[in-house]
Design goal:
Layout (H helix, E strand, L loop, with lengths): L8 H14 L1 H23 L7 H19 L3 H4 L3 H6 L5 H39 L11 H23 L4 H28 L7 H11 L5 H33 L1
Helix pairs in contact: 1-6, 2-6, 3-6, 3-7, 6-7, 6-10, 7-8, 7-10
């Protein structure tokens, strides 16, 4: 089947819509279960400590835990012997299929979670008011902490998309294990590199001056630049690299 090159927003929209329609029952069950759990926890907390940031903390937990879990299941159809073939034969390019998956696990999930949780907080606090005559502040989607959490979610979720496209089974646990081993390797390699490069400075009074220079920025502007570089790579670089890997993996499978 010949697919026109380029990106057609209509095809991406249809891919997203079809996925949501096919999974609508599962989505409804999950949303109902989460709503019931949040309502019960809100009632329990209102009867006790009455944490003022209850809904902010609860939403961020649901955002990360639910988003990462759903991301790890994103490519289950892709790996299925029967459904996977149907997915690959859909009249859309590899780039459009990859974009639809990325949008589903990021923007669509975030938008839907906000639209569901915001009215849910009103309902749960209305119940608290009726039952206990106490209530939490309702959820504020524009809270700076929520916005920062959402921006961090893009970076935290992206590696699990790689795991979903590469691992056929147990993608979540295998991705966590792979990330742990990668961090362990990088930490060990970094420690060995520092030991090799600094040499004798790692013993005696020299080590103190090295750490003071790192911590207190004896060289003007070193720490702010380093911090901004790490932040930029975390929030922008990790998602872009992860999405690119997913695209090439998808293209490689279609061949």
């Amino acid at each position: 089947m010949q697919i026109k090159k380029g990106i057609q927003p209509t095809r991406i929209y249809l891919l997203i819509r079809n996925t949501l329609v096919l999974k609508r029952l599962s989505i409804l069950v999950i949303c109902s279960a989460v709503a019931g759990l949040v309502t019960c926890l809100s009632l329990m907390d209102a009867s006790g400590s009455l944490e003022p940031q209850f809904h902010r903390n609860m939403y961020l937990f649901i955002l990360f835990a639910g988003g990462i879990w759903l991301t790890s299941r994103t490519y289950r159809t892709f790996h299925d012997p029967v459904d996977g073939l149907s997915w690959l034969l859909l009249p859309a390019s590899s780039l459009e299929k990859t974009l639809s998956t990325i949008l589903l696990s990021n923007l669509v999930y975030i938008a839907c979670s906000l639209m569901v949780y915001f009215p849910l907080s009103f309902v749960s606090e209305g119940l608290n008011q009726l039952v206990l005559d106490r209530f939490h502040p309702v959820f504020n989607p524009f809270d700076p902490s929520v916005i920062r959490g959402i921006s961090l979610y893009f970076a935290a979720q992206a590696p699990f998309l790689i795991g979903a496209v590469y691992f056929k089974k147990h993608a979540l646990s295998k991705t966590i294990l792979s990330m742990f081993l990668l961090l362990l390797f990088l930490g060990t390699a970094g420690a060995v590199s520092v030991w090799v490069i600094l040499g004798n400075m790692l013993s005696g009074p020299g080590i103190q001056s090295v750490f003071e220079a790192i911590l207190y920025s004896d060289v003007a502007g070193v720490n702010p630049v380093l911090f901004r570089s790490i932040k930029l790579f975390t929030l922008v670089g990790i998602p872009i690299v992860s999405w690119t890997i997913c695209y090439f993996r998808h293209t490689e499978t279609e061949r």
